[in-house]
Amino acid sequence: MLRTKGVITAMPAPKNVSPTTEPLRTRDQAATEDNHYRYTSDTYQKVLDYHVAEILLSTIVLAVITLLRLHH
User: Fold this and answer.
1) Does 29 have pLDDT greater than 80?
2) What DSSP letter does each residue of 10-30 carry, written as one string?
3) Alpha-carbon distances, residue 69 vs 22, 58, 65, 66 (angstroms)
4) Rounded distance between C-alpha atoms, residue 56 and residue 61, angstroms
5) Is the per-residue pLDDT at 5 higher than 80?
6) Which of 37, 40, 59, 64 has the fewest CB neighbours in a 10 Å radius?
7) 42 or 67: which leads in pLDDT
């Protein structure tokens, strides 16, 4: 927008400009780029998944025990 003596006017859009688009990526290119930004190894990720499952299971068991004790 332009200001001319306190009046705001909209600028017209250029008519002969073609839109810029990025080329589409193939699945192989996307997988390669995704692996490039990966910070953990597969083995370490499995260990993390195991610990998350262990914590979740422990929480469920403790919640059931607590509910059973509060019920009586």
Assistant:
1) no
2) PPPPPSSPPPP-PPPPPHHHH
3) 61, 17, 6, 5
4) 9
5) no
6) 37
7) 67
- Which tokens belong to 48? 């993390």
One-letter identity of residue 50: Y
Tell me the two tokens of residue 16.
């002969």
Per the structure block, which two tokens stand in for 67?
């509910």
Bridge partners for 7 per DSSP: 4
Distance CA 41, CA 69 (A): 42
What are residue 4's phi and psi, to 5 degrees? Answer: -130, 105
Mean pLDDT, residues 6-29: 64
CA pair distance 22, 44, nearest whole angstrom? 35
What span, in angstroms and rounded, lies between the C-alpha atoms of 68 and 5?
A: 76
Overall residue count recorded for the chain in this entry: 72
pLDDT confidence of 36, banded at 50, 70, 90? low
